[in-house]
Amino acid sequence: MSRATIVETCDQAVTGIEDGSTILVGGFGFAGMPFDLIDALIRQGATDLTIVSNNAGNGEVGLAALLMAGRVRKVLCSFPRQSDSYVFDALYREGRIELEVVPQGNLAERMRAAGAGIGAFYCPTAVGTPLAEGKETRTIDGREYLLEYPIKGDYALIAAHAADTMGNLVYRKTARNFGPVMATAASTTIVQVTDVVPLGHLDPEAVVTPAIYVDRVVQVESQHHLVKGAR
Amino acid sequence: MSAIEHLDRGPLSMDELAAVIARDIPNGSFVNLGIGQPTKVADHLPEGSGVVLHTENGMLNMGPRASGSAVDPDLTNAGKVPVTELPGASYFHHADSFAMMRGGHLDVCVLGAYQVAFNGDLANWHTGRPDDIPAVGGAMDLAMGAKDVYVMMTLFSKDGSPKLVPACTMPLTGVGCVSRIYTDHAIIDVGPAGAAIVETFGMGAGEIGRRLGL
């Protein structure tokens, strides 16, 4: 893959996203959510999307706004139901959106596998539960495991703290969450950052996502929201 | 082994229960506290306990809830509540966070529950009602990962039926994963050997045993 491009606007960053794409969307609640890229995706118009993200939207911003715009066919996530997930809840109850619930660690590890070229892996999570239905099992050293397949994205939309002009990324606190894993698991990784710095300004020892995983970077003013009713 | 009975008092309040759990967590443990009531345990860890809190969204040595100018939208716990960091904190991505959980590096995890079975089966993610939107989060990963899984809950539901049962009727989160339940009326060990009452509060072990069918 070619080197990362620094683009001027979020609209440029999301050009070419096709209808029917699978998009990995970073963030845990609002921490690390790429709000500006999602807003640009809504303007861009791609529809019939499959979204992979930890949650299914909070309030009416970010992922919830994309859902509200009717662009999402299916959500793979670990935790859709929250105090302020009313947009998703209504779509789901009306049968207008598909849901696949994936345990949070499996969601992360399945994307890690996709980015690392692993064909599938055995995992003990969810053995004996309804989420094990239809999965191959295997006993290894007396313990039962389920066969889990990678989750690969056509695109990843993530937020990081800073990038250098090559596309190396650093994150900030728990906003890191799914970003580094999603960056590896998509054919095209698109990142919004609050700062683009010149080459040499990121400590190579501190780089979390090396530039090889990054395709497009856009600098935006940071947009912050807190989840209402969090407990 | 006979149970310790505290009959000179009523059942534990949720805060007292959190204090009892905090008392039993060994100093220096790496601990994950589940969303909801279990987060109260952090308020009762003694000064100098050396307990390091893990939050599955990607942090070790998490500090107390943040307020005022300390609120940082980039720093939240697994319940998405703004928190603080303690000296010695570290951040990591989600795959690492769950690898350290699944890999058996966490000592203790405290979770809420709808039901626990005598053999340690756990049901805490889905009521099974058809109109309920399922949401599992990290519960299944935590249940399978931590060396000791403690459950914090009331022993009886509002209608008086026990939440510690011979077999879970709700969809399972994990099989045989719980080692001990902490409830308002009793602390009870569970597992392959069945349920054994350890300590009771405001009710005798005999009566609890009868109500649970032990």
What does this structure look like?
The complex is a heterodimer of chains A (231) and B (214). By secondary structure, chain A is an alpha/beta fold. Chain A is 21% helix and 28% strand. Chain A has one domain (5-102, 151-219): Glutaconate Coenzyme A-transferase, CATH 3.40.1080.10. In chain A, strands 1, 2, 3, 4, 5, 9, 10, 11 and 12 form a nine-stranded mixed sheet that branches. Chain A has a three-stranded antiparallel sheet with strand order 6-8-7. In chain A, helix 5 crosses helix 6 (179-185). Chain A starts with a strand and ends in a 12-residue tail after the last strand. Chain B has 214 residues and is an alpha/beta fold. Chain B has one domain (4-212): Glutaconate Coenzyme A-transferase (3-Layer(aba) Sandwich), CATH 3.40.1080. In chain B, strand 3 (52-55) and strand 4 form a beta hairpin. In chain B, helix 2 packs parallel to helix 3 (139-145). At the A-B interface, helix 4, helix 5 and helix 6 of A face helix 2 and helix 3 of B.
Compile the SSE list and pairings.
The complex is a heterodimer of chains A (231) and B (214).
Chain A: E1 5-7, H1 10-13, E2 22-25, H2 35-44, E3 49-52, H3 63-68, E4 72-77, H4 86-93, E5 98-101, H5 104-116, E6 121-123, E7 137-140, E8 143-148, E9 153-164, E10 169-170, H6 179-185, E11 186-197, E12 216-219
Parallel strand pairs in A: 1-12, 2-3, 2-9, 3-4, 4-5, 9-11, 11-12
Antiparallel strand pairs in A: 6-8, 7-8, 9-10
Helix pairs in contact in A: 5-6
Chain B: E1 4-6, H1 14-24, E2 30-33, E3 52-55, E4 59-65, E5 83-91, H2 94-102, E6 108-111, E7 115-117, E8 122-123, H3 139-145, E9 148-153, E10 164-165, E11 180-183, E12 186-189, E13 196-201, H4 205-212
Parallel strand pairs in B: 1-13, 2-3, 2-6, 6-9, 7-10, 9-11
Antiparallel strand pairs in B: 3-4, 4-5, 7-8, 11-12, 12-13
Helix pairs in contact in B: 2-3
